[in-house]
Amino acid sequence: MFDIVLPALHSFASFENVGFLVLGTVIGLVFGTIPGLGGATTLALVMPMTYGMEQTPAMILAGGLMGSVAMGGSITAVLINTPGSGPSAATCLDGYPLTQQGKAGMAIGALASSTAMGSVIGVFSVLLVLPVARQLVMMFGPPEFFLLALLGLTAISISSGGKLLCGLVVGAGGLVLSFIGEDAVSGGQRYTFGSDYLWDGLPLVPTLLGLFAISEMIDLSLKGGAVAKKTETTEFAGLWEGIRASFKHWPVVLRGSIIGTLEGSIPGVGGTAASFLAYSLTVQADKHPETFGKGRIEGVIAPEAAINAKEAACLIPTLTFGIPAGLEMAVFLGMLILHGIEPGPMLLIHHSETIYALVLALCFSCLIGAVLGCVCIKPLSLITKIDVHVLVPLILAISAAGTFSIRGEPLDILLAGVFGVVGYLLRRFEYPRLPLVLALVLGPVAERSYHQSMMISDGSWSVFVQHNTSLVLISLIVLAVVLPVWRSQSRRRKAAAEFA
């Protein structure tokens, strides 16, 4: 491996390539902070600029962009509860409460360090896996996809903050909403009420912006004041504390990175599922799950490690099979073809140095983005001191513009507003929002994979236990269901013993 990586690393000795790396990183950070744009739109805007460039500089520019765009989206998620992209929405759950407590510096420090650590782990995993990626990806078929989605849906029971019934109600509503649009099996339309807009289902970006950004703006406008509840200058106070927290909670970083790597290497699952699954499993593994959603630093570390490990892992199916692991990778696939790079088994033979330079650019971009995020913490934290009468209209305008720019569909803005009201009502009556997101993301994957499994097995349920991968996933599902019950019983017995 090192005989290929070292020549790729040598390419960064060029001043030109370093310049393209920094340029891509800055573009990704800036565009990542704009709600709704994300990596796919940013990459699509930059791709024409690379026409005529040599392969390696173009891939380094793309790697710098893709590696940093998630960081920009997560910074706004922490500071103003406005995720720049879908995966960063998981960071809102505990990152924003920390900001409200005057601990924006601590949250950004943890965000930056876990981003860097997750990226390094993810890139190292890809460097090890890429030569044998074809065999690993082939281990997942429709039955395994269904079980993987089911594993994510079981997180509803552990992500409800002690409100299991409320979580199940919200999750059931999310599943119903996920069935809107085209039936993956029959091709017919369901629950569209005669509207052409709903043929493709509910678009995820406007939905997430409504649930998190717009709902928060509604809440802020009713409360008044500013985002941060404390008036002291605490921007720098917790920066190093947040950085140290990522090293202190290294098992959380490792678990999130592994989840991100696995989810990213499987086409069709996506980064949003990876970040929320990492968050949910972190809640499950903690001794006090009820404290999450109120400002736990682990709730920032876990999804961020998963997001950036996923960014590198998404290259595995894209480069090996030409199957994009998400919308961003679909745009990147077009960029590969534009530069005469054909994905497939022969890719590492004909373009090995260029591809490994791309992977390293992803890693370096995350590291540079993390440093820039920490350096700019003071001006960024000032956002939390702005009065809501100024901040709310600004964020709503940016959210509307970002939502509209993706598809040019005015109804996307209306949908974001509807889910903004839904998100506010869920907050108002203390219903968890995480089960709704999990159900919306994983519902279509579970349904499609289930029907595919039934068709290839002629309706036999044995298809779900025929392979070792399926058995491992079933064991994890059972563990995810049993462990919370066992821990709940243990706490009750302990409380009874103390009372006696």
Structural write-up:
The chain has 500 residues and is mainly α. The chain has one domain (2-499). The protein is 71% helix and 1% strand. Strands 1-2 form a two-stranded antiparallel sheet. A hairpin with a 6-residue loop joins strand 1 and strand 2. Helix 20 crosses helix 21 (410-428). The protein is globular, with a radius of gyration of 22 Å. The N and C termini lie far apart (62 Å).
Short description, anyone?
The protein has 23 helices and two strands.
Topology:
Layout: H1 2-10, H2 15-32, H3 38-46, H4 55-80, H5 89-100, H6 104-129, H7 133-137, H8 142-153, H9 164-178, E1 181-182, E2 189-190, H10 204-223, H11 239-248, H12 250-264, H13 271-285, H14 298-313, H15 315-321, H16 327-338, H17 347-350, H18 352-375, H19 377-381, H20 388-407, H21 410-428, H22 434-456, H23 468-499
Antiparallel strand pairs: 1-2
Helix pairs in contact: 1-18, 2-4, 2-18, 3-4, 3-16, 4-5, 4-6, 4-14, 4-18, 5-6, 5-14, 6-11, 6-12, 6-14, 6-18, 8-22, 8-23, 9-22, 10-20, 10-21, 11-12, 12-13, 12-14, 13-14, 13-22, 20-21
